Amino acid sequence: MDTAYPREDPRGPTPREADGAAHTALTLGAPRPPPRDHLIWSVFSTLYLNLCCLGFLALAYSIKARDQKVAGHLEEARRLGSKAKCYNILATMWALVPPLLLLALVVTGALHLSRLARDSAAFFSTKFDDSDYD
Hints:
The protein is mostly helical. The protein contains three helices and no strands.
């Protein structure tokens, strides 16, 4: 067996520069996905015209997040995208909860009125005799 040729190290090669210094590159976990700006959701939240202009705030932060992502500032884009997401959640809740609450109040009010009408119909159908007025 000829051992004159250089063998590769099973642990992987370590690159060397001209000056002989060794450099190693470490990968610290999986790369993070690109930041999300939630722009489409923000546009729909803005067009719905909710109270307190939460959709407009979400749109402003979404545009800022997209600008930061294009500029290469990924951490700033993540922070602004997170704010846009929070404002979008608040705008969506503000848009959904009051109509659902109003619907629940109308249904319970209708049920209460129907029960009241049914009970009062029996009261008004009572016949009184002339002897009751003496």
